[in-house]
Write a structure and sequence with these properties.
By secondary structure, the chain is an alpha/beta fold. Helix content is 41%, strand content 14%. It has a single domain, classed as Alpha-Beta Barrel (TIM Barrel), CATH 3.20.20. It has a 5-stranded parallel beta sheet. α1 packs parallel to α2.
Length: 162
């Protein structure tokens, strides 16, 4: 994830990541926070998009950005902050609205911080198709992640995502 102080060299870093990983650019996702969506960075985002890199806004709804950025910037993915997902009787009404905006703008929407089956069920009922959080897996190091992704057969949570 890039923050305001680490943008220098981001194009070169993206090219290096593509080369070293062997991934197609469409599989490389750069997460940015709302607070770095500012004029000096818009050209860099456009340049990364030209390379085929996908751009995700992390922790959406917690910063000070305008909704108009979703329509004007080369954004592919919006990640709904955990604060809107927390286990309560109902999800925040903003989750439904963010999902509808994402559908209208043809953006992928990721619900962050899903920790319980109830949260997952409520999100699915609203039409949220992508999620992450402790309900699926805890953070893991490179070796653990590689073993998980190359396991045969795939663990149920990964097989279901196909």
């Amino acid at each position: 994830m890039l923050t305001g102080s680490s943008w220098e060299g981001s194009i070169g870093l993206a090219k290096k990541a593509r080369t070293e990983s062997g991934l197609e650019a469409k599989h490389l996702i750069l997460e940015i926070t709302e607070n770095v969506i500012a004029q000096p960075y818009i050209q860099i985002l456009n340049d990364l998009k030209t390379l085929g890199v996908r751009i995700a806004i992390d922790d959406f709804g917690t910063g000070y950005s305008s909704l108009s950025y979703l329509d004007r910037l080369p954004i592919d993915i919006v990640k709904i902050d955990r604060s809107f997902i927390r286990a309560t009787q109902e999800l925040s009404p903003l989750v439904r609205i963010i999902l509808q905006i994402g559908e209208t703008l043809r953006l992928d929407i990721v619900a962050e911080g899903i920790e319980t089956p109830d949260e997952l069920q409520r999100l699915r009922q609203l039409g949220c198709r992508i999620g992450q959080g402790y309900h699926f897996a805890r953070p893991a190091d490179t070796d653990t992640t590689t073993a998980l992704l190359t396991a045969q057969p795939l663990p149920a949570v990964l097989a279901a995502a196909r």
